[in-house]
Write a structure and sequence with these properties.
With 234 residues, the chain is mainly α. The chain is built from 7 helices and no strands. Helix 1 crosses helix 3, helix 2 crosses helix 3 and helix 4 runs parallel beside helix 6.
């Protein structure tokens, strides 16, 4: 394995870890905010852990300190579970074909879809959902085009686009001017941003590696690799 392939493999692992963390945080936030049959199962045991943490820290049993620590502890546990599952299924042909576009799209729209599903209180920022859905459609199309090398952006352009996207949805998640109610939710938006950026860097590196990798049976381009022809006068 050459340096380029090794770098792509390392980026793939980083991308999968950050993707798992992003999905785990969004799923935990979803179950925490709006009880439902699936996501609420991720909350099982969290209250008991919160009580144990607060008791050991000599805090009020319902202190948010224990609540946040329990929340993120469970999120890390589910991150590990998701990462193991991704590693297991990544060996299949279907996963190999679909994981590149799907990871990027899910990283981009996971938090926004969760926010749209949960909804907001009347006093919190609640812009027209039609405009927000249009923004989601735009970034999804961009992710698809970028994934299949149909959209080329400089790295600074990618960073700016992702920063704007997650600044918007992070602002909505934190409640706009009411961010101080739950500042640690910033971690969810930051996780989405880093997962999406890691995916973009991985796709870019993979495409560059494919461009420079010689096809089987192709003639060498490096002159040092061309065998020397003995002179007929020897």
């Amino acid at each position: 394995m050459n340096k380029a392939s090794s770098r792509v493999a390392s980026l793939r692992h980083i991308c999968e870890i950050l993707f798992s963390l992003n999905v785990a945080l969004v799923a935990k936030l979803q179950g925490n905010q709006r009880p439902n049959r699936f996501f609420s199962t991720l909350e099982a045991g969290q209250l008991n852990l919160q009580l144990v943490i607060n008791r050991n820290l000599h805090n009020n049993p319902h202190s948010s300190v224990g609540g946040y620590l329990a929340f993120y502890a469970y999120a890390l546990l589910w991150t590990l579970v998701l990462y193991i599952m991704i590693r297991y299924f990544s060996q299949t042909r279907l996963a190999t074909a679909l994981d590149q576009p799907l990871e990027g799209i899910i990283s981009l729209v996971g938090l926004p879809v969760s926010w749209l599903y949960v909804g907001t209180a009347p006093t919190l920022p609640n812009p027209p959902h039609s405009l927000l859905i249009l923004e989601l459609i735009f970034v999804t199309v961009c992710a698809l085009l970028y994934s299949f090398s149909k959209l080329s952006l400089p790295i600074w352009g990618t960073v700016l686009m992702l920063a704007f996207h997650f600044a918007l949805w992070g602002w909505l998640l934190l409640g706009g001017p009411y961010f101080w109610f739950s500042p640690l939710r910033t971690v969810v938006a930051v996780a989405g941003f880093t997962a999406s950026l890691a995916w973009a860097v991985f796709v870019r590196a993979k495409a560059q590696t494919a461009d420079v990798t010689p096809l089987p049976g192709s003639s060498p381009t490096n002159l040092s690799q061309v065998p020397k022809v003995q002179s007929e006068h020897n």
